């Protein structure tokens, strides 16, 4: 069985968990605390970043984008209508553009700040950067999430899903990162009903159930977090 080294509230790890569940690849989850930088983990991925998928042959596939590409390479043609990276070249370009947006821009401007300041630092020792959250970083993330939410609403107002007519990696990447922010109660859903309805569609999928069951010790989720209808 494949093994996914991940952390429950790492947004990139959540994306990997979603796409593995959607494609039906049986996977064992191994929790990896990224700040510990364990030597055995660094031997698999010298960058020390999550997630890392180790397949049945022992091949280590690092990174959310790498895992998405790997799954399409090994399973894409057999998934037929469930393929998460379309065959059409223009559509593939659009999916990859949006992956860059959510795995890169959204992460750097929103989800990384909030996950680090509100969750990671609670469990990190002081010598590794643990301690009180940086409220300036949190305020910046709360400001930034608003225009990202507007952009999601803009896309969904024109399309059935973020990249087109079918759900793709783009939807799962966006929803994975938003799910961490939503757990913390920092998504202003009342500002964009279109984006809210799209997110409800994604989080109602069976692949999302495990994410909605995750809990940060000592920190309850926002009241609506597990409510599929908000």
UniProtKB/TrEMBL annotation:
Coiled coil: none
Keyword Metal-binding: no
Domain of life: Bacteria
GO MF term list: glutathione transferase activity
GO biological process: glutathione metabolic process
Domain GST C-terminal: 88-222
Keywords from the UniProt entry: Transferase
PROSITE patterns: GST_CTER, GST_NTER
Domain GST N-terminal: 1-79
Classification via InterPro entries: Glutathione-S-Trfase_C-like, Glutathione-S-Trfase_C_sf, Glutathione_S-Trfase, Glutathione_S-Trfase_N, GST_C, Thioredoxin-like_sf
SUPFAM superfamilies referenced in this protein's UniProt entry, alphabetically: GST C-terminal domain-like, Thioredoxin-like
Record text on subunit structure and interactions: Homodimer.
Protein's name in the database: Glutathione S-transferase family protein
């Amino acid at each position: 069985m494949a093994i996914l080294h991940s952390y429950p509230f790492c947004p990139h790890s959540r994306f990997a968990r979603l796409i593995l569940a959607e494609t039906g690849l049986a996977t064992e989850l191994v929790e990896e605390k990224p700040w510990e930088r364990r030597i055995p983990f660094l031997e698999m991925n010298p960058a020390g970043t999550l997630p890392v998928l180790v397949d049945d042959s022992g091949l280590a596939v690092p990174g959310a984008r790498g895992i998405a590409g790997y799954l399409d390479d090994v399973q894409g043609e057999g998934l037929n209508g469930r393929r998460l990276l379309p065959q059409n070249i223009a559509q593939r370009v659009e999916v990859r553009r949006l992956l860059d947006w959510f795995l890169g821009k959204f992460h750097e401007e929103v989800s990384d700040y909030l996950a680090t300041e509100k969750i990671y630092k609670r469990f990190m020792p002081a010598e590794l950067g643990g301690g009180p959250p940086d409220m300036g970083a949190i305020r910046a993330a709360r400001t930034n999430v608003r225009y990202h939410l507007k952009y999601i609403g803009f896309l969904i107002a024109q399309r059935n899903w973020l990249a087109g007519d079918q759900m793709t990696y783009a939807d799962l990447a966006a929803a994975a990162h938003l799910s961490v922010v939503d757990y913390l109660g920092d998504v202003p859903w009342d500002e964009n009903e279109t984006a809210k309805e799209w997110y409800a569609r994604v989080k109602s999928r069976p692949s999302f159930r495990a994410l909605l069951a995750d809990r940060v010790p000592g920190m309850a989720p926002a009241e609506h977090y597990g409510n599929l209808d908000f």
